[in-house]
Specification:
119 residues; 7-stranded mixed β-sheet; 4-stranded antiparallel β-sheet; 11 strands
């Protein structure tokens, strides 16, 4: 069983910063890709950023230059550094892990953490 535990959300003023963490635990062989998604009220879930096994990263255009995704492989933990936050960044943020497990590739989601950007 693989579990993802997120932390770091909260209330921040526009222009502020937050760092989200996603710690993976349980039984898996290796990470294929990890990613952050977000879902704002009344909207669909969108992928914000991803990081592959080789460290390659991708970002949605709206966060390029403001957000940074990185991983600590020793701790199986992924981070999302969010700078210059805007009200449009308000959403529940979810982490996702796709990993090699016995029998194939497993797909796991965290419980979500709320990020609110407001004066």
């Amino acid at each position: 069983q693989v579990q993802l535990v997120e932390s770091g959300g909260g209330l921040v003023q526009p222009g502020g910063s937050l760092r989200l963490s996603c710690a993976a635990s349980g039984s898996f062989f290796s990470i294929v890709v990890m990613a952050w998604y977000r879902q704002a009220p009344g909207k669909g879930r969108e992928r914000v950023a991803s990081i592959g096994n080789s460290g390659d990263t991708n970002y949605v255009d709206s966060v390029k230059g403001r957000f940074s995704i990185f991983r600590d492989n020793n701790k199986n933990t992924m981070y999302l550094q969010m700078n210059n936050l805007k009200p449009d960044d308000t959403a529940v943020y979810y982490c996702r892990l796709q990993a090699n497990v016995d029998g194939g590739i497993g797909d796991y989601w965290g419980q979500g953490t709320q990020v609110t950007v407001s004066p």
